[in-house]
Each structure stands twice: as C-alpha cells, then as structure tokens.
Write a structure and sequence with these properties.
This protein has five domains: 60 residues, Ribbon (Laminin); 38 residues, Laminin (Ribbon); 37 residues, Laminin (Ribbon); 33 residues, Laminin (Ribbon); 40 residues, Laminin (Ribbon). The strands form twelve sheets. The chain has a two-stranded antiparallel sheet. The protein is built from two helices and 24 strands. The radius of gyration is 37 Å and the shape is flat. The chain is mainly beta. One of its GO terms (biological process) is positive regulation of cell differentiation. Pfam families: EGF, EGF_CA, EGF_laminin, hEGF. It comes from Ramazzottius varieornatus.
C-alpha cells in the first residue's frame, strides 16, 4: 500500500487529517510529547477513514492522559540500599510502599523476624530467621519446610548400584550413601573411570569396567597390560 510523506501538521495515509497535536499543541503538560494515533476499527488500525486522536508520552515523574499527574513512584522511593522489598503505589498526594512478604517499615527495609512472631516450626523444630524469610532445623524423625512431615531414615533408599544407606542424624544431616567399590556420587550413581590411571602399554586401549579395566591390545602384543609380545600366525 502506498503511503504519503505528509507535510508538518497533517497525518494519515493520504495526509487527509489535521494533526491533533498541531491543532492543540499544549495537550501534554510537564514536557510530555504529543503524537497522533489512530484508533482500531473493527479489530484493525485504520489511518484512512477514522480521524486520529492523540496520546502523550510523559517525561519521567509524570503520568496520566495529559501528563498532569505526578508519579511519586518514579524515583523508586520504596527501594532501600538497592533492595527492592516493596511495590510502590501512587496516591493522590503521595505514595505508599506495599511491603513484600518478610519485610516491614515505611520503606520496607526492616526484615521481619518470623521466629519471634509465631512458631512456624512444628514438632520441636528450631526456627532460624533469614533475610525476608526463615528456615526450620527439624528434630530427628521429621522433615519439610515446617517440620510437619514424618522422616523415616533410608525409607526410600536413594543409593544405587548396591550402595548402602546410612541414616542421618537430622534433616540438616540427611541420610547418606556408602558406595560399593567402583562407584561414587551422592547416590552412588557414578561409575568411577578406572582408565584415568591405567597401565596399558604399547598402544593398548583402556576399556573401563566396574571397579577395574581391561586393555585392548594391538598386535603383536597381549597380556593383561599389553606388555607381552605374542606371535600371531
């Protein structure tokens, strides 16, 4: 579709409309920038048959259709020391800081000690305050964020490849695995690469096994470590 390069003061595909920002040049206050916009018609944007309206692009510190409302939140007054612990809400003559969970104060910069307001840890668990939250150190036999779940040591046996599960003393010191020879990892899920320090000689190729390795020898060598010269017919 062809479009025209309009003279100043006119807009539209065919420059058929007066620019509303020129007709009333002071629509936007406090240094806001006015621009012509075309409203949607039947779900589409038209610049042929519908006269344009305007919108104001406000400078920082102002908002509203004509940039006449002071944006008290523009300077991020609720942020303290670089931490965003709140959401700023503009009021008619000021602002209010709505604190995020775990914080309080005029600027939401005071950490709430949840351990002193309530007893969040059940079944004798110990509450430890953290920044913006808390955590529970559960007694032996319990687990979960609030120590409300019963913990049966090694009930699910997370140890793989023949590893042996040992009960932990608490959730802070959980169950742990004693791995069978040749395996490692928190759940004994890793087959140790025994080829790292292999003794294959004379160009032999190491092939990792469980708790050991074998040497794939090249002619004319053989033996466990390819260190024997063998005659081939």
């Amino acid at each position: 579709m062809l479009a025209c390069d309009c003279r100043p003061g006119f807009v539209g595909n065919h420059c058929q409309f007066r620019d509303p920002c020129v007709i009333q040049p002071r629509r936007c206050s406090n240094g806001g920038t006015c621009r012509a916009v075309f409203l949607a018609l039947n779900g589409t944007t038209s610049s042929d048959s519908v006269e344009p309206t305007f919108e104001c692009l406000c400078k920082r510190g102002y908002l509203g259709p004509n940039c006449t409302t002071v944006d008290f939140c523009a300077a991020y007054p609720c942020d303290c020391q670089g931490h965003s612990n709140s959401v700023c809400r503009n009021l008619e003559n000021g602002y209010a800081c709505e604190c995020r969970k775990g914080y309080r104060g005029l600027w939401c910069n005071i950490d709430i000690d949840e351990c002193t307001l309530e007893e969040p840890c059940a079944n004798g668990g110990t509450c430890i305050n953290t920044i913006g939250s808390y955590r529970c150190v559960c007694r032996n036999g319990f687990k979960g964020q609030k120590c409300t779940e019963v913990h049966v040591p090694c009930a699910e046996n997370p140890c793989q490849n023949g590893g042996r599960c040992h009960p932990g003393s608490s959730v802070s010191f959980p169950d742990f695995c004693e791995c069978a020879s040749g395996f490692s990892g928190s759940h004994c899920e890793v087959n140790i690469d025994d080829c790292i320090d292999n003794a294959c000689q004379n160009g032999g190729t190491c092939q990792d096994q469980v708790n050991g390795y074998t040497c794939q020898c090249s002619r004319p060598y053989g033996g466990r470590y390819c260190n024997e010269e063998i005659g081939y017919e």
